[in-house]
Specification:
Layout: H1 36-69, H2 76-107, H3 113-153, H4 155-161, H5 164-187, H6 192-226, H7 231-234, H8 240-270, H9 274-302, H10 304-322, H11 341-353
Length: 354
């Protein structure tokens, strides 16, 4: 989940030619030199990004494999978590490296125009990835909120009409529309204002509709827990832990996104300042990117089924990696593939023959 400097705010353009940059400099001039504090800040951000990239990609891919392999996860709530994991994996694969590359160019710049043009192109690519990732993330979070709200407050309607296939199709269709809008923005930058308004609408929906929805869910869950009437007699079973997990994901997203949204609002109201560009904006972007690292940790910590599936995936992977290839007829060793009960039966049969 990623938002760069943001269409929601303002792309800080100080361009020469056809390139856009998110710091105010001219391609005909040198980069602005950093003082000691800002240099240490940039080095720290680069170091943190370098640490986060691979774990973010790996953990989200593991979550996706776990959901895909386990049919118990093939229902709406877990499928939506899978969609969020896809977005987070994209952030780790594209957005984080692009942001890191711009930081490194700022630290190790050259006086030739090539480095400045490369910086501008990488910065613009990071902005476009940010627009795409933020839209997909907020669409998915909104869908998760709607799914949880309807499942708890209209359970009979939910069971009758809500199907996993329908949720998947609706989410993919929304993602496709948003991707087309971002592509149009890349081709024709005059649509930037329209996309900015769309992101603003998504932000309003998540902040001012999703949060109250989960607050109401909390109150209901608390009421059910404190009630002396068994839940099975009062209403259909409510997924307490799943709802809490979705709420934690929502508030983690808000915690990570809010600093950048605040910085963007300040830029819109008061304009660009050296303090914002040098210190606040890079750290706000880093916090936002870190959300994609936190999400899979939340899934694995809160959901035992996902934890068990991840452990099983690791066991299968290392078992296959450590098992020697078998040539010819099978010997007394345990077969390499995991076949469950059938595998145990083969081993027992071989041992009895020995």
């Amino acid at each position: 989940m990623v938002l760069s400097n943001g269409t929601i705010g303002q792309r800080i353009n100080s361009t020469s030619g056809d390139f856009k940059c998110d710091i105010p400099f001219n391609l005909s001039q040198d980069f602005t030199s950093f003082d000691t504090a800002s240099f240490i800040s940039r080095v720290t951000i680069a170091g943190v990004l370098g640490i986060l990239i691979l774990p973010t990609i790996f953990m989200n891919i593991i979550i996706l494999v776990a959901i895909f392999k386990n049919r118990n996860f093939w229902r709406s709530s877990h499928i939506l978590i899978g969609f969020l994991a896809v977005t987070d994996a994209i952030v780790g694969t594209f957005s984080m490296p692009l942001f890191l590359s711009t930081i490194l160019i700022e630290l190790f710049y050259g006086k030739s125009a090539f480095y400045k043009k490369a910086y501008c192109m990488l910065s613009e690519a990071a902005l476009n990835c940010g627009d795409l990732g933020m839209g997909w993330s907020f669409i998915t979070i909104t869908t998760i909120t709607f799914e949880r709200y309807v499942a708890i407050f209209a359970p009979f309607w939910y069971r009758k009409y809500v199907r996993t296939s329908g949720v998947v199709k609706a989410t993919l269709f929304s993602w496709l529309i948003w991707a087309v809008a971002v592509v149009f923005l890349i081709v024709k930058t005059s649509l930037e204002f329209a996309l900015g308004v769309s992101i603003l609408i998504l932000v309003v929906v998540v902040y001012f509709l999703a949060v109250p929805a989960f607050i109401r869910i909390f109150r209901l869950l608390k009421k059910i827990e404190s009630s002396r009437i068994p839940e099975a007699e009062s209403r259909p079973r409510v997924d307490h832990k799943g709802s809490m997990t979705c709420a934690i994901m929502l508030f983690c997203l808000i915690f990570c996104y809010t600093p950048l949204l605040v910085v963007t609002a300040v830029i819109l109201v008061r304009g660009v300042s050296e303090m914002l560009l040098t210190y606040l904006l890079p750290w706000a972007r880093l916090m936002l990117l870190a959300n994609s690292f936190c999400n899979p940790i939340i899934y694995m910590y809160r959901n035992q089924l996902i934890r068990n599936s991840v452990k099983a995936t690791f066991r299968r992977f290392f078992k296959k990696a450590s098992s020697p290839p078998t040539v010819g007829t099978a010997g007394p060793s345990v077969p390499a593939m995991d076949c469950g009960i059938s595998n145990r039966a083969v081993v027992i049969n071989q041992n009895s023959k020995l």
